[in-house]
């Protein structure tokens, strides 16, 4: 039998303390991916404008962020913090446009997996700032990521196009029958790189967690402002060309995107980064997203190949692992065995450029 002292020591261990946070991270990503699938089915059923849809979701999201964080209260924000956040808002607006268009053309699975292409910033940091001995690991990781994205574009994760079609159950509702190719994957890949860039800028500008949340409200509000003329132009061009510009309302598609896809996921990723030291483009994050994708593909009865998806996600995870090798070694070399607080870990986490 375990003594009370041993039980208290187990409960005081980092793994036991982080278990609730890990559950929150898994549930947050599950609901976010659920919102992505609901958004995709909304587009396929209605043919609505992607720019107008994301703009209508950003407007209430920016208002809620502003009401929750109140960036105008407390210590005034300096110009060196506000100006980069506004620029980051423009990058965020472009990211949303590219990502939603990639979702419509490539489907939810490939759009979500392409978000992890932001790990290529790790290769760039190794070339510019890293040691030469680790550059080849970064380049090898980049090649593995490109190979995984190429396999995804060729339909390896689809039952109708996967080389493992014999192992898959083809008695499903097939929604996509043609391979896309890397040309169509360029849009979601660029969106993934911009997503990683906006996270890097947010880390560089705000070193404190509370300041990061205040500046995120400024970023989302500026992204909404930048997206406004694009949405209006899309509305005007659509009306003059005679095509349908109506935006059919679907409560679940809009509400899930607002609350799960924009608001909740920000706080969940912030908790994972601050407390679990897990950045977005990391193998651990990819593993959580992969499990959620498998559940959603099964529930929505998509054209899905489990063996092909496992191979693609494994190759992509290996590429991300190699691309972040330098940052892990740098963190381990500076980290003390039993730090009294999290200052050292937080500083090292913020100092890493990639993802």
Automatic annotation (TrEMBL):
It is a multi-pass membrane protein. It comes from the Eukaryota. Keywords: Membrane, Transmembrane, Transmembrane helix. InterPro entries: EmrE-like. It is found in: Membrane. SUPFAM superfamilies: Multidrug resistance efflux transporter EmrE. The chain crosses the membrane at residues 21-43, 49-68, 80-100, 112-130, 142-167, 179-197, 217-237, 249-268, 280-300, 306-326. Its main location: membrane. This is Zinc transporter 5. It comes from Rubroshorea leprosula.
């Amino acid at each position: 039998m375990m003594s009370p002292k041993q039980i208290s020591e187990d409960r005081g261990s980092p793994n036991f303390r982080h278990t609730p946070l890990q559950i929150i991270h898994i549930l947050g990503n599950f609901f976010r991916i659920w919102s992505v699938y609901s958004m995709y089915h909304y587009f396929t059923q209605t043919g609505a404008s992607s720019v107008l849809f994301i703009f209508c979701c950003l407007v209430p999201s920016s208002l809620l962020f502003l009401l929750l964080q109140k960036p105008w209260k407390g210590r005034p924000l300096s110009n060196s913090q506000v100006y980069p956040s506004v620029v980051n808002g423009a990058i965020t607006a472009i990211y949303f446009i590219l990502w939603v268009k990639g979702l419509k053309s490539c489907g939810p699975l490939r759009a979500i997996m392409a978000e992890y292409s932001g790990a290529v910033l790790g290769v760039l940091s190794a070339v510019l700032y890293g040691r030469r001995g680790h550059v080849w690991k970064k380049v090898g990781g980049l090649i593995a990521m490109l190979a995984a994205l190429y396999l995804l574009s060729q339909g390896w994760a689809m039952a109708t196009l996967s080389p493992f079609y014999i192992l898959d159950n083809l008695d499903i509702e097939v929604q996509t029958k043609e391979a896309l190719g890397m040309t169509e994957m360029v849009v979601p890949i660029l969106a993934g790189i911009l997503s990683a860039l906006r996270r890097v800028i947010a880390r560089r500008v705000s070193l404190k967690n509370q300041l990061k949340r205040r500046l995120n409200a400024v970023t989302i509000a500026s992204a909404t402002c930048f997206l406004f003329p694009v949405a209006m132009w899309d509305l005007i061009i659509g009306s003059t060309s005679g095509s349908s510009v109506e935006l059919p309302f679907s409560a679940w598609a809009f509400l899930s995107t607002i609350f799960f896809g924009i608001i909740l996921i920000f706080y969940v990723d912030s908790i994972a980064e601050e407390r679990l030291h897990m950045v977005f483009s990391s193998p651990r994050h990819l593993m959580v997203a992969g499990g959620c994708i498998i559940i959603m593909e099964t529930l929505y009865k998509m054209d899905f190949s489990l063996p092909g998806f496992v191979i693609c996600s494994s190759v992509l995870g290996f590429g991300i692992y190699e691309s972040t090798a330098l940052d892990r070694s740098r963190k381990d070399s500076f980290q003390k065995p039993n730090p009294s607080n999290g200052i050292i870990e937080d500083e090292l986490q913020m100092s890493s450029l990639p993802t």
